[in-house]
Amino acid sequence: MKILIAEDESITRRMLKGMLVKWGYDVVTACDGKEAWEILQTDDAPQLVILDWMMPGMDGVEICRKVREFTTPSLTYIILLTAKDTKEDIVLGLGAGADDYISKPFEREELQARVQVGARVVGLQSALAFRIQELQEALSHIKRLQGILPICMHCHKIRDDYDSWQKLEEYIEEHSDAEFSHGLCPECQKKYYPESVREKDDETASSQKGRGRY
């Protein structure tokens, strides 16, 4: 998982990066709020972010608000790193859109635990988003098979959205997961293959006659 560290203090930034890399994370760093915001607007932006509250250019709280306003909020987990630890400050940070916070100075074990929680949440949210997409695609296929379908009364071909005529089985296979295997119903077998029906009837009669001798 890729994690963004936005911290203007170089020593703290290097220390955080060293720990996260050691724990197996892919780390991207920013030295101020403006650089962090630019990274978060890229197509492959990190889904887990550790933001320092006080930074030049744009502080952590402002970034939180912009992330929740302009990006997909459910797929960005934000941990606010701050020396502010009053209840009012915590409420302000969480209200701005942070998912969690860590007070400075922080313990290594606490940081690791909170990052692990964030990684689990991001994983669950990503899996849920993927599942929702699958369901939406399935629903789209179902809707395409609903309503009135123009069908030829003789050959049973279906007219599609592009005014082209398709065989019934081709249309259904294209718009669903159904597959066709061909066979013969009794009526068609009598109509088109009467000889095979007579042979089968003769075999059945002969078999029944043979059993009747005993």
Can you tell me about this structure?
The protein is built from eight helices and seven strands; from the N terminus they run βαβαβαβαβαββααα. It has helices at 10-22, 33-40, 60-70, 87-96, 108-144, 168-175, 186-192, 194-212, and strands spanning 2-6, 26-30, 48-52, 77-82, 100-103, 158-159, 165-166. By secondary structure, it is an alpha/beta fold. Helix 2 runs parallel beside helix 3 (60-70) and helix 7 (186-192) packs across helix 8. Helix 4 links the parallel strand 4 and strand 5. The longest helix is centred in the middle third of the chain and has 37 residues, at 108-144. The strands form two sheets. It has a five-stranded parallel beta sheet, sandwiched between helices. The protein folds into three domains: 2-136, Rossmann fold; 147-182, no CATH class; 183-214, no CATH class. The radius of gyration is 33 Å and the shape is elongated. The model has no long low-confidence stretch (mean pLDDT 83).
Could you write a compact summary of the structure shown?
This protein has 214 residues and is of the alpha/beta class. The chain is built from eight helices and seven strands. Strand 1 (2-6), helix 1 (10-22) and strand 2 form a beta-alpha-beta unit.
